[in-house]
Amino acid sequence: AASAGAVYIYKRTGVTWAQEAYIKAPNAAANDFFGNVCISGDTIVVGAPREDSNQTTITNGTTASADNSASMSGSAYVFTRSHTATWQQQAYVKAPNAEASDAFGNSVAVSGDTAIVGANEEDSNQTTITNGTTASADNSAPQAGAVYVFKRAGTTWAQEAYLKAPNPETFDSFGK
Question: Do residues 145 and 176 touch, judged by C-beta distance below 8 A?
């Protein structure tokens, strides 16, 4: 699975570094580019901007879609570390308007219980913020880009907002 991607986690104890974990996407496939990483405490968000699933919902838990009908739509994965230093997948995150070539997961960030995921090739010409769990299906501004905000409650992730630039234009790559 060339270019599927992986994440290696190292931990330092004193002056010694040791590998703590090796993480792969549960639906790893060639050219997913799993590996755009951001960490906050015991939570890691990993983007895979070339993942191909056409899923448009969040899967809370340890699974992910094996469908590959939306080429390079992209995805993000949330992993958490337990008190025993064991990492496990907490969520598989997709945009509610996921389509081919959106590159969702090209950029990721996490702080506490909030994560953001950029989709710099998303195509909507929307000029406002959408609070809630939806996103525009308009495709009249190719690669204008978008950013999605997700919030965790307990162990469950849900979309909180869909952000767009107030002046989106073709090839802006907002969210990169």
Answer: yes
Task: Please name every residue paired with 78 in a beta bridge, in sequence order, or none if there are none.
Answer: 45, 91
Q: What is the CA radius of gyration of the chain?
A: 16
CB 131 within 8 A of CB 149: no
Cα of 52 vs its chain's centroid, Å: 13
Per DSSP, 153 falls in state: E
Up-side HSE of residue 152: CA atoms within 13 Å toward CB? 22
Closest CA to 20 of 44, 4, 1: 44
Measured in whole angstroms, the distance separating CA 56 from the mean position of its chain's CA atoms is 12
Q: Considering the chain, what percentage of its residues have pLDDT values greater than 90?
A: 98
Q: Tokens representing 144?
A: 């204008």
79-111 burial, b at 16+ Cβ within 10 Å, e below that, comes to bbbeeeeebebbbbbbbbbbbebbbbbbbbbbe
What pTM, to 2 d.p., does this model score? 0.96
In the chain, which residues have pLDDT < 70? none
Indicate the burial class of 155 (C-beta count within 10 angstroms; 0-12, 13-18, 19 or more). exposed
